[in-house]
TrEMBL record:
InterPro entries: RibuloseP-bd_barrel (IPR011060)
Organism: marine sediment metagenome
This protein's name: Indole-3-glycerol-phosphate synthase
Length: 180
């Protein structure tokens, strides 16, 4: 594998078996892209990142189950046009339910505003096709020039309500009549 400086390099093998993942690691891959039909033993490989490709149709239960697997990230299908709030909601659902970092494939010409929107939706990294490696520095510049994360969520106030279990515990602790 040709390294691109400090940029992680990954492989997407055709048939992903544990031996394939081990061979990719030995060849210098930083991570291997898996799909849902990859051999279950692949998750036992160490010293190489494991990124699972999931689709928008993955159920909430399926996404929650991913939280317990030794995965380093999820790859989400490339963003299609039109880029809508619904698509951002799908990305956020994947991020929140799986509790796993999200990666999404982008074109080298992606606009900084779209990168910022992806970040706000829970995307923590982008994938650039190896054929576009010559445009990597421009993409890196775009990522590094993004403004700091918004604080919109920090300005929200949350209502604090007592839980039912706390109320029940308080009732049980009330002293009874003193018969002394």
């Amino acid at each position: 594998l040709k390294k691109l400086g400090d940029v992680p390099v990954g492989l997407r093998p055709e048939d992903v078996q544990r031996a394939t993942v081990a061979a990719a690691r030995e060849a210098g891959a930083d991570f291997v892209l898996l799909d849902e039909e990859s051999s279950g033993e692949t998750v036992l490989e160490e010293k190489v990142g494991l990124v699972l490709r999931v689709g928008a149709e993955t159920s909430d239960t399926g996404l929650r189950a991913l939280a317990g697997l030794p995965l380093d990230a999820l790859e989400i299908a490339p963003i299609s046009e039109p880029f809508t709030v619904r698509r951002l909601m799908e990305l956020r659902r994947h991020s929140l339910l799986s509790q796993t970092p999200l990666l999404v494939e982008v074109t080298p010409e992606i606009e900084p505003s779209r990168l910022e929107a992806l970040r706000e939706a829970g995307v923590t990294g982008v994938i650039l096709d190896g054929k576009s490696a010559d445009r990597l520095s421009a993409l890196r510049e775009a990522v590094l020039s993004l403004p700091a994360r918004g604080r919109r969520g920090e300005m929200r106030t949350d209502a604090l309500l007592p839980s039912l279990t706390a109320a029940q515990a308080a009732e049980e602790e009330e002293p009874g009549p003193d018969f002394e």
